[in-house]
Amino acid sequence: MEDNEIEEGGISLGDIFRTIFSQKWLALIVAVAVAVIGVVGLYFMNKPKQEYVVSFVMKLPGSTDSPDSYTYPDGTRFHFTDLMSSKNLQKVKAESQDYADIDVDKMVKNGDISIKRETLEVIADSKIYEINYTLSAKASYFKNSDIARNFMIALTELPAEHLKEMEIDYDTYLSASAKAITYDTQLSYLQNQVNYISSLYNSFIGSYNGSFVVKDGKTLSSYKADIDVFISNNRAAQLKNEALENKYIKDGEKGQAALSEYNSQAFELKRQLEVAENVYNELKALLEKTNPSAVFDNPQILEQQRTIQDLKQKQKDVNGYINEHKFDSSFDESVSALENEIRNFTSEFIDVASIVYSTASTVSFANSTIITTEGGMSIMMSAAISIVAAIIIAAIVAYIVGWSKQKKSAPVKASAPAYFEAAEAQAVVTEDKPEEKEDKE
Predict the structure, then answer these.
(1) What proportions of the chain, in percent to the nearest 5, are helix, strand and coil?
(2) Residue 64 counted as domain residue
(3) pLDDT, tens digit, 9 for 90 and up, residues 79-131
(4) Are 187 and 242 in contact (CB under 8 A)?
């Protein structure tokens, strides 16, 4: 009775579901198609709005005073915005074939990569800062999040790479010693070189502590101790005295150049000595007239006497090289051996410096996954929306198709009641005739 009333008032909910179910395969096909198209469509529509974001803390040696820019030990200036420069983006892109499709020029031109910097003082008025950076790039430039993660990590590591690979001229005195034409000058430069390396170790120990482990368990203090022992032997000074005593000069062109230099020095020393003696004589004569008793303890007289003695000694040494010079291959080998040892100390320090700088520079990420996605719509949300839309659209399509088919078959079904009514009437007439016969009888 209730069904009849619902049917008389319109289409029942059951009719709707029966109509949809009658086209279940069509509904399934439409639902799958719409869901797939929806997920793909929403993904590509939302990807241009999505950004990959990396938040990190970067520590660089000597950067605790929180300047906007940082000066590398080699003198190169670095500003944090340099991370997103076209030059650095191209450098990272060239590191891997995975980055070949990343259009870094377009990324820079359209402003689709950015970096922000936030400086936080760890303790009030301590001048010790924690510097947080946020690097963002549009997701549409990357095939997937893994490539984006690796690319952006490589960008954050550029300062540490520069610290590790930078070439600093730590061998200034070594280079000068190689050009020296006399043993005296060469050995002075070598002495300066080893003292310079020792001072660099002192600087490192002051900044990073002597217990800083460089490699294989060896500390900065241990490296410093090695060079201190070498310096204490004072071999450079010993060789200088030996060269002076024996009047050793270098072989070949350097020896000839040294002799020319000694001749020039002899001429200059002779002139200086003459001037010094004249000054002394004039000063002495003046004092003898004014204060004879002060001649022997007058400071100016004493100073001039020391100057004259010093010039005479230099003149003697130079004349000795000019008149008594000789080349000794054994001595030359000793100087070369000393130079090689100091060169090894220098090379060792270059390796130590590279390790110290790269170790002291750190990048720490704020998120365990390193990279996060912001903006747009996630793939899960896109899928959920697409599935809901697919079900609704599939139901509508299935109902329309089912209803259309039912409508086309309606005329056939409408003729059925008239046929059955005529048949029933004929049956009634047939049944009434025997009764009429019985009445007549």
Answers:
(1) 70, 10, 20
(2) yes
(3) 999 999 999 999 999 999 999 999 999 999 999 999 998 887 777 776 677 77
(4) no
pTM above 0.70, yes or no: no
Domain total for the chain?
3
Determine the average pLDDT of the residues in 148-160: 94
> Residue 391 falls within a domain, yes or no?
yes
Strand runs labelled E in 269-319? none
Residue in 44, 29, 36, 52 with CA at minimum distance from that of residue 367: 52
- 83 and 198 in a common domain: no
Token pair recorded at residue 121: 């003082």
Q: Is residue 367 part of a domain?
A: no
Q: How many residues does the chain have?
A: 441
Helix (H, G, I), strand (E, B) or coil at 114: strand
Task: Find the helix or strand (DSSP H, E) in which 43 lies.
Answer: helix 24-46
Two tokens, residue 241? 């005295």
In the numeric block, which tokens belong to residue 421?
Answer: 């009514």
In DSSP terms, 53 is beta-bridged to: 136, 372
Pairing status of strand 69-71 against strand 51-59: unpaired
| Enclosing domain of residue 210 | 172-359
**Together in a domain, 24 and 103:** no
CA dihedral over 318, 320, 326, 330, signed as positive or negative: negative
3-state secondary structure of 412: helix
